[in-house]
Amino acid sequence: MPIILQTEQKHWTSRFIHGVMYAILCLGAATMVYPFLLMVSGSLKSRVDANDFDIIPRYFFDLEQLYRKQQESKYSENLQSYIQTTHDDALNFKTIRRPAPFKQALLSDWRLFLDQADMPVSWFLTGYGPTLDGKIIQKNERSFRDFIKQKCDNDLAQFRLEFNEPIENWFFLKFQPERLADRKYQLSQTPLMSAFYGFKNSLPVEDRIYVSCDGAYARFVKLNSRRTAKALVRQSTSTEWQGFVRTALHPQFIQIQAEAMPRWSAFLKTKYGQVENLNKLYRSDFDDFTGVPFPADKVHASAALTDYILFLSDPDILPAGHIYLDTPELRWREFLADRYRTVSDLNDAHGRTYTSIAEVPMPQRELDDAFCAENSGGLRMRYATRNFHMVLEYILLYGRGLWNTVVYCILAIVLALVVNPLAAYALSRFDLPSEYKILLFLIATMAFPGVVTMIPNFLLLRDLGMLNTFAALLLPGMANGYSIFLLKGFFDSLPRELFEAADIDGANEWQKFWIITMNLSKPILAVIALGAFNGAYTNFMYAFILCQDREMWTMMVWLYQLQQFSAQSVVFASLLIAAIPTLLVFVLCQNVIIRGIVVPTEK
Fold first, then answer.
1. At residue 252, does pLDDT exceed 90?
2. How deeply is 234 buried, as exposed, middle or buried, from its count of CB atoms within 10 A (0-12, 13-18, 19+)?
3. How far apart are CA 584 and CA 35, in angstroms?
């Protein structure tokens, strides 16, 4: 009987009450839906917009926000690398802005310069690489992994043999972040590093971050004095410049004039005494010290490079007048000086207001801005799916979590549909003397949470030698008191005449159970199967405690492990992916579920 009679529903008070009730219901729905929508939105974000509480991420429609996200991703969430390269003193990636408008000739000149300059691979960093905390996998990490997998025919054993790298799984293959402007950074002569530089050489221009020695110098001056740093070329006589070049700048950008060769030979003679000692360390066959050249390879670690750095570091041995630099910025400025007669011509062509060609930076921000505007759709899709991509890669490539979960769920459903109906059928069909006590015992199990029995179950299964097996996962939940109670009530509602007719036809008890009872109980069996699936699929603590061998971990355990070293957005993405199977089952089986709940009540 309705609370408000039909004759009263048109009155204004009744309508007001209805409005209040619907408003409360809508508010309650919003309090449930809004947090879920925030989680969905959070799964599409990264660190730069993780704290923006918006339902639709801004980078979907805001090009400025997309540019920030692209810069954060390209510079691998390393703000210091961004500042050093772009000379933009941003407080964080949230505060950066798109560059001022420019003319297309700027990018045309930059691409032409890159085609002609033929700069070494060690002069640029790999964009979209590993982040500092490693909590998200980026585009070029994945591309490098695919590059190596192709070289090894996707054979992990061949990779370990060829590269001598003991990685556990392809998922963990990545390259180390580079510090190509840092004096202390030297490459190792390993097969994997050589393969990485082969991969790096194939990167498109948009994925390259050319090292800014001006930016490295500005950072050096900022850390060591309060004076503002200018371009390196202007500071060749300053104390800061000499300190930076001699102690901080990577030697690959430092050149020494040929006139300093006698000083180099004298330095080596003082250090080694006999040329044989040098040959032994250098693995060379020089006749005397005057024949030893400056090292050609200033990137890979070697004894010659160590001596070169020591020679550079001592102003008494090598005066500053013999030192000059060769950097990407200096080559870019030389290119512009040859192409344009004056700085005013350069400003007219590029749409800039430089006062001197010596202060022109590399247009990497402008290149990124143009790339972002031209590929906004693809970038939005990449940033919206990369967290889900990482989760799916982890599930599919690492361990047997997906296979274990599928097997576990199937076996749990089968056992639930066999054990529970048999127990319920016995209680329903036979007048057992302790029937109500048994039912009371079964219902009493609902009063205790599963964690209460976790330790006893663990000790029992350990003593039986069943740990790290499917039996350990299945046996504790194979019989369920609530399911048996629910099935007994449904079986009791079945017409007794059907069983009497089966007795007349000579059917045995198994036929009556399988042909009559089970066929008429499909709705309630669907509910039991759904409960068994949900219990097995979401089982985490039992699966983690009873199966500590990684080969037996289920997907929930693997996702928990992923969440320990992943960003917040990846955690949200893993929760959404984990919820998809349960959601699909509920959506596709909702009619059967409703019938299983309503039909027993109607009967």
1. yes
2. middle
3. 21
Rounded-to-integer distance, Cα 582 and Cα 275, Å: 75
601 has pLDDT over 50: no
Q: Is residue 78 part of a domain?
A: no
Pairing mode, strands 323-325 and 208-210:
unpaired
d(CA 113, CA 328): 10
pLDDT the model gives residue 5? 59
Q: Which helix (H) or strand (E) holds 124?
A: strand 124-126
Give residue 9's pLDDT: 63
pLDDT reported for residue 6: 63
Of the pLDDT bands very low, low, confident and very high (cuts 50, 70, 90), residue 497 is confident
Say if 157 falls within a structural domain. yes
3 state SS for 524-591: HHHHHHHHHHHHHHCCCHHHHHHCCCHHHCCHHHHHHHHHHCCCHHHHHHHHHHHHHHHHHHHHHCHH
The mean pLDDT value for 337-355 works out to 90
Amino acid at 14: S
> What is the rounded distance in angstroms from the CA atom of residue 110 to the CA atom of residue 391?
38
Residue at 517 is within a domain = yes
Query: Which CA distances in Å does 116 have to 112, 252, 481?
Result: 6, 20, 78
Instruction: Name the token pair of 417.
Output: 């549909």
Lowest mean pLDDT among 82-91, 430-439, 488-497: 430-439
Longest dimension (CA), the chain: 117
Q: What secondary structure does DSSP assign to 266-287, as a single string?
A: HHHHHHHSSHHHHHHHHT---S
Residue 379: closest CA among 60, 98, 46, 49: 60
Domain that holds residue 15: 6-42
- Asked if residue 526 belongs to a domain, the reply is yes
Q: Residues 6 or more apart from 215 whose CB is under 8 A from it?
A: 83, 84, 85, 86, 87, 181
Q: Which range, of 6-10, 208-212, 522-526, averages the lowest pLDDT?
A: 6-10
The Cα 120–Cα 112 span in angstroms is 16
Q: 0.90 exceeded by the pTM?
A: no
What DSSP designation does 228 have? P
Domain check: are 534 and 407 in the same one?
yes
Query: Which helix (H) or strand (E) is 126 found in, with range?
Result: strand 124-126
Q: Determine the residue type at 84.
A: Q
CATH number, domain of 490, equals 1.10.3720.10
**pLDDT given at position 566:** 85
Asked whether 567 and 46 are in contact (CB, 8 A), the reply is yes
Separation of alpha carbons 325 and 391, rounded Å: 46
**What is the dihedral angle through the alpha carbons of 498, 501, 507, 511, rounded to the nearest 10 degrees?**
-10
Q: Is-contact 298 308, C-beta < 8 A?
A: yes
For residues 32 and 180, membership in a common domain is answered with no
The total number of structural domains in the chain stands at 3
Q: How far apart are CA 569 and CA 518, in angstroms?
A: 46
Q: How far is CA 295 from the centre of its chain?
A: 40
**Percentage with pLDDT > 70 across the chain:** 94
Q: What are phi and psi of 430, to 5 degrees?
A: -115, 140
Structural domain ending residue among the three candidates 202, 235, 267:
202
**378 CB-near residues (< 8 Å, 6+ apart):** none
Nearest to 347 by CA among 106, 99, 110, 114: 106
